[in-house]
Amino acid sequence: MINCDLVNALRAQGVKSSDILLVHSSLKALGYIEGGADSVIDSLIACLGEEGTLLIPALSYDNVCAPDYYFDLLNTPVCIGKIPETFRKREGVIRSIHPTHSVCAYGKLARELTEYHSQSFTPAGRLSPFSLLRGKNAKLLMLGCTLSPNTSFHAIEEEAGVDYVLSSDEREYTLSCPDLPPVKRAYRYHYIEENGFYQNYKRIAELMDIAEFKVLEATSFLLDVDQMWEKALAALKNDPLFFVKSMKR
Q1: Which residues are 186's β-sheet partners?
Q2: pTM value?
Q3: CA pair distance 204, 147, nearest whole angstrom
Q4: Disulfide check for 25: which of 14, 83, 138, 154 has CB 3.0–4.6 Å away?
């Protein structure tokens, strides 16, 4: 079920057919929408058309915990909301292989943007979908979210090599994927709070123009991914702690 108000709001901000769109979302913030999460997804896909690609993070860090550290590509649920969990279950959606920071994608470039994540042994390294969006004129939509839960910043932090973002040790996860025997792989993991910092990703608004607009009942934001990378990397080069706050302050 397509929600015309949602489609029209995105069109008015310049989201068009053939776009690559990464979406963070809050269904609750949107208020009542007939058809719920499915209607939101239908509307996003309709807005992007057959030539577009929709990506939604399918983070599962709360569902692959000790002692098992077990990730099932087809069955491990998302821990960040109704829209990404509904999207994960959709026919034709491809989920990247990573135990804590997978991404689901649908559309023209879905496979291209997800297929290399299995070769990344950090959450958001250069082969992750978050990094592969760089240089592709992609857009980032915070649909009913603030600028804070922006997972792409982990990719930027990893690229910049800031020393607070990753653990020094590794965790071993068991991965279960269709048509393959279970395999154990070791991953470094995000260690920001353990290193004494809070994320402060909303500071990107100090560096670039960001469209802020209303969608149904929710305030939303639309960012240019390439510009975000350029501005954020430059800021981190000048100040490696630009996007975090110390817990000691």
Answers
A1: 172
A2: 0.96
A3: 8
A4: 83
